[in-house]
């Protein structure tokens, strides 16, 4: 089984506990799910990105929350 580059990057960031990178990577995954019109998958990834953003005081925390809120997931 081969993994796509985003999945590889997510696994690598988890392996070294790079939470700031995980924010961006999970947001990227959410963007891909949004493009595929898979709102449940988008929100799954957004939730992960938001949690890591909260933990790291990331500048995207409000943007991620707003996206979750627009989808009724808050």
Outline the structure in words.
It is a single chain. The protein has about 70 residues and is mostly helical. The chain has one domain. Helices cover about 75% and strands about 0% of the residues. The protein contains four helices and no strands. The chain has helices at about 5-15, 20-35, 40-55, 60-70. Helix 1 (about 5-15) runs antiparallel to helix 2 and helix 3 (about 40-55) runs antiparallel to helix 4 (about 60-70). The radius of gyration is 12 Å and the shape is flat. The relative contact order is 0.14.
Q: What portion of the residues fall into strands of 2 or more residues?
A: under 5%
Average pLDDT figure: 95
Name the poorly predicted regions: none
Which assembly state applies to the chains in this document? single chain
Structural class: mainly alpha
Count of discrete structural domains = 1
SSE pattern: HHHH
How many helical elements? 4
The helix content, as a percent range, equals over 70%
Major sheet: size, sense and barrel closure? Answer: none
Number of strand segments: 0
Q: What is Rg? A: 12 Å
Give the CA-CA distance, first to last residue. Answer: 35 Å
Inertia-based shape: flat
